[in-house]
Design a protein that fits this description.
Elements (H helix, E strand, L loop, with lengths): L16 E4 L6 E7 L9 E9 L3 H12 L7 E2 L8 E9 L16 E9 L8 E10 L5 H11 L3 E2 L12 H10 L7 H25 L11 E4 L5 E3 L5 H8 L3 E7 L9 H11 L3 H9 L5 E4 L1 E2 L2 E8 L2 E9 L4 H5 L4 E4 H9 L1
Parallel strand pairs: 1-16, 2-5
Antiparallel strand pairs: 2-7, 3-5, 3-6, 4-5, 7-15, 8-13, 9-10, 9-11, 11-12, 14-15
Keywords: Isomerase, tRNA processing
GO biological process, one term: tRNA pseudouridine synthesis
GO cellular component, one term: cytosol
Length: about 350
């Protein structure tokens, strides 16, 4: 199977080399919700900064401390273990009942604030994530900074290798599931399904880059309005639509394979069929498992992008829409070695 390292680059492979995640503080992420907490209501929102812990661990700890079930603890998104991440958790708690959260001891974590809200925090209720990345052992800081303006043109919105598990373990799990093996653990099953769809999505982006169609409209393409989930089909390619694509007002999309009517038509549909032909069995399995089809933007544009040089390190800051991967931005800028991932692979 193709790893992320084998996926084509949009701007050619970077010449600059660096190391990321030498320590957790080198990779910092702060969630921004897509709503303002109401300040009242029967749900509690907890903003927690965690270091060296994954999201599920914190959810389990909150369940233990409150006496609730783990499934009663919700969050807007999963955050990496090998990082310093600030994210929101939520659970229902009676308005008149005290909660001595100031006395809690959460390993590798601290509660920054607690606020009430009128409804449960849902998965995906994020506007964007803010990243601060320290790149160490940078081979050519000036060369890295010179390449930075390319990112503002947009980069391939690949799913990062984290989605596929250590050594592609989640994809191997998907193959077993599609081969008829029962996976009763809902979380593992979900990881397998998510990884397989992400893999197929990446294949379409990779294929379009190789054929020179990454930023070129085809008849029948499905495009997404910038800053919105709204999508529409391009029946006819016009200069106006081409200009809107160039101006980043609209973005081309690729499929999240599953059950449902494929919106894509004409020449764009034929291209997607060709690119996914080797994976027909996976497509059929996803439909049989009643995973719902969707679309996702092929291009992501980092916001608030800035960089500063500190000796042989470069600190990179930017924000991305929810669900987009910082490492997919990073790979177009620098050839990096992920120190934390190296350790995880040795331990697996």
């Amino acid at each position: 199977m193709h790893t992320s390292n084998e996926q084509p680059y949009l701007y050619a492979k970077p010449a600059v080399q660096a190391v990321i995640r030498t320590e957790p503080a080198d990779f910092q992420v702060v969630e921004e919700l897509n709503f303002e907490p109401s300040g009242s209501g029967e749900h509690l929102l907890l903003q927690i900064e965690k270091t060296g812990q994954n999201t599920q661990f914190i959810a389990r700890e909150l369940a233990r401390l409150t006496g609730l079930r783990v499934r009663d603890i919700s969050y807007a998104g999963l955050k990496d273990r090998h990082a310093v991440t600030t994210q929101w958790f939520c659970f229902k708690w009676p308005i008149k009942q005290e909660l001595a959260w100031q006395n809690w001891q959460l390993e590798g974590s601290r509660i920054l604030q607690v606020v009430r809200h009128y409804r449960k925090l849902r998965l995906g209720a994020l506007k964007r994530n803010h990243f601060s990345l320290r790149l160490r052992q940078v081979s050519d800081s000036a060369g890295l900074l010179a390449r930075l303006p390319l990112l503002a043109e947009g980069v391939p919105n690949y799913y990062g290798e984290q989605r596929f598990g250590i050594n592609g373990g989640n994809l191997a799990l998907a193959e077993r599931l599609f081969g008829g093996e029962s996976i009763p653990d809902r979380q593992l099953r979900g990881l397998a399904l998510s990884a397989s769809r992400s893999f197929l999505f990446n294949q379409v982006i990779a294929g379009r880059i190789r054929r020179g169609h990454f930023a070129r409209l085809l008849p029948g393409d499905v495009v997404q309005l910038a800053g919105s989930g709204s999508i529409f089909v391009v029946d006819q390619v016009t200069p106006e639509l081409e200009q809107r694509l160039s101006a980043q007002d609209i973005h081309l999309t690729a499929p999240l394979v599953g059950l449902g009517k494929a919106m894509v038509t004409a020449e764009a549909a034929l291209l997607e069929q060709q690119l996914l032909a080797p994976w027909q069995a996976w497509q059929q399995a996803l439909e049989l498992l009643r995973v719902q089809a969707g679309r996702r933007s092929m291009r992501v544009i980092p916001e608030q992008l800035q960089a500063s040089v500190e000796q042989d390190a470069v600190v990179l800051q930017f924000a991305l829409p929810a669900g987009c991967f910082a490492t997919s931005v990073l790979r177009e800028l620098v050839e990096y070695r992920d120190a934390a991932r190296d350790i995880a692979q040795m331990e697996s």
